[in-house]
Amino acid sequence: MTKIISIINQKGGVGKTTISQHLIVGLRKKNFRVLAIDFDTQCDLSFAFNIKNKFSIYDIINNPKQNINEAIENDFLAGSPLLSSINFKAKQNKEYLLKSALANIIYDYDYIIIDTPPALSDLTINALTASDEIIIASQADILSLKGIGQLAQTIQAVKEYTNTNLTVKGILLTRYNNRTVLAKSVANMLEETATQLNTKLFNTKIRECNAIKEAQAERSNIFDYKKYSTAGLDLQNFINEYLEE
What is the SS3 assignment for 198? Predict the structure, then answer.
């Protein structure tokens, strides 16, 4: 059964796209069929995969008659800055546009991974309405904790109005430094936040690692660039932890 997963936080700079990229790559390396969707106007996921598709997710959302198969290249739906220009108010069933678009291809894949924008918007609501699960990416700082608090309200609204089956799979700590008192303190607070969201803080934490930045500069991923680095091992452990459940 296909699982649609949104990687999300309403705060930017928490490693959301990095987690999306490596969950996609890691699952593919385990021979799962994975569709990647860049649903962020910044298009960082498309950049990371060096995607230059003829059509983008913008064409699909803005024009429901557009054939989604024509937009999917190399199991990727590219992002577009034009996503921010879509007039959702003028569209019928505006919260369900992405879900409807995926209906015809959903069973072609084991997983569909959506990289979401770092703000509450119609794009975010569409992603959550279409998803089965959410993985919340967060750093161990107060602003990230605040972002999750705001996100909790959005999740509750989506579950109440457009997607009663939406599940928060867990909170994943990124760029983690276990040597700092603040990081440990925020991690403990995130444990409490996870309980309030009826979920958990993943045991695996993605530690700060320069190899991630180096891999991104090379338009590569950590598994191909330096898989035995700190981040490479952490990201692999995270994927294994996710799959074990």
Answer: coil
Start-to-end CA distance of the chain, whole Å, equals: 15
Closest by CA to 179, choosing from 207, 148, 141, is 207
| Distance in angstroms (rounded) separating the CA atoms of residues 19 and 239 | 10
Q: Which residues lie below 8 Å from residue 86, measured CB to CB, with a gap of 6+? A: 58, 61, 62, 122
6 forms beta bridges with 114, 134
List alpha helices for 52-96, DSSP H: 57-62, 68-71
pLDDT in tens, 96-134: 999 999 998 989 999 999 999 887 889 999 999 999 999
Question: How far is CA 208 from each of CA 77, 189, 204, rounded to the nearest angstrom?
Answer: 29, 20, 13
Burial class, 21, CB count within 10 angstroms (exposed 0-12 / middle 13-18 / buried 19+): buried
The CATH class of the 3-206 domain is alpha beta
